[in-house]
Amino acid sequence: MENNNKKKILYILTVILVLISIGVLFFYAPVPINPGERGTYTDSNQETRYTTTQDEWINYVNSFYIAYFHIPIALSAYLSFSLVFIFSILYLRDARQKWDTYAASAAEVGLIFAGLAPVTGSVWAGAAWGHYWPPGDIRLNTSLVLFFIYLAYLLIRQAIDGPEKKARLCAVFGVIGFISVPISFLSIRLWSAAYHPTVIGPGGGGMSGSQIIIPIVLGLAAFVLMCISLTIYKADNFTLENELLSLKQQKGV
Amino acid sequence: MKEFWYLAKKDLLIEFRTKQMLNSMLIFSLLIIVIFNYSFSNMLYKVDISDIAPGILWIAFTFAGMLGLSRSFASEKEDGCLDGLKLCPVDPSAIYLGKVSSNLGIMFIIEAIIIPLFIVLFNFRDITGLGGLVVIVLLGTLGFIVVGTLFSALTVNMRTREILLPVILFPIIIPLIMAAVMGTQKVLLEGSIMSAVNEVRILVVYDVVFIIAALLVFEYVIED
Description:
The complex is a heterodimer. Chain A has helices spanning about 1-25, 55-60, 65-95, 95-130, 140-160, 165-190, 215-250, and strands at about 40, 50. Chain A has one domain (about 1-30, about 70-235). Chain A starts with a helix and ends with a helix. Chain A is globular. Chain A has a two-stranded antiparallel ribbon. Chain A is built from 7 helices and 2 strands. In chain B, helix 3 (about 50-70) packs antiparallel against helix 5. Chain B is an all-alpha fold. Chain B is globular. The two termini of chain B are about 25 Å apart. Classes of the chains: A mainly alpha, B mainly alpha. The interface of A and B includes residues 149, 155, 156, 165 and 188 of A.
């Protein structure tokens, strides 16, 4: 019972944080990067163009607000995937059903974030760089690969019948899939046109000022909490499903 | 660790007697190259061939390899051969390494036939950097087979294994294929393996990491 109360507190906290971060985004947050005096973007012919009309300029500046969602979503996708990796290793170590349940729920939640990251990214890229899918951009392509690995993971879950075998083979795929992500990042980098700014490192990619710290931290906290509560919620869901199944088998329904 | 060699020899012996997989893989990859040759026929006079050649070559290799991989463990299902293998007094990793070696052998034979045919069909006369090409093909094929053999064992007991194998294998080998294609292109353009040193580095890292990971998890894949 106490556990249930803790979960309720977590869920309520998540809802409040998400609402606050949306509110802050609309009424307080500044444009997260300094777009320069005139907006520039790269058009489809790889030429630098300047925004000309007032409308274009407003669109260009406003497009940067999506960063407050895009960055937390992308980070949540990576977080879910590391959760899948950790739970898979734990399952391979002692073969307890609960690790598999957690890994499966983390993968399902991660699939949503891994799908949303390229979508929000491509909307932003369309407005800011004039190109919905900048060819060879590292992070867009890595997050798409991540999305496909999640899909494959869930496909394997669907294809196997026995719960023990399903858990074991999925855990193996969770481990192998996670290892391939950093290598995939490295190899896509060979093709990179440097669209994404390097945020961590000298220069800081234009992110500066204390005003942006509050909305970005709020956004991160909201999305990470959302990711964790959804995973717990989904895991409870799976547990109930399994209980129902075993009850049905006992009664011979 | 000598056992794995016996297992590989067994697989290769069966393959050379029936030639089932060799024939269909060879014809399939040849067909892919011919289809590309037709569909890009307008382009072939306009662009530099070394711009599109690496992509076509690696698509042919991976698609043909997929045919072989999906049969690799499935053929052991007949008459309970897989159970017999598991009963052998050998380490599970020996079974895995044996399968990797026999699959590698078959892939190398296919590639050794396909590359000369490719040179003829695409009129690739002034070919340079053949030595570098060999290095990249060897490293790329090794990584592809290492992951592919593991997944072939993983899907062997599933109902939809033929459909599932490519779907789960391709996302994992994307980094490998990208590095291999880039490396092949650089070697063909500049003629020296030194120009593709970054790609070779990624290929080596990929191969080493996945051989170790596969050896660690393989026993979980075939236990039941």
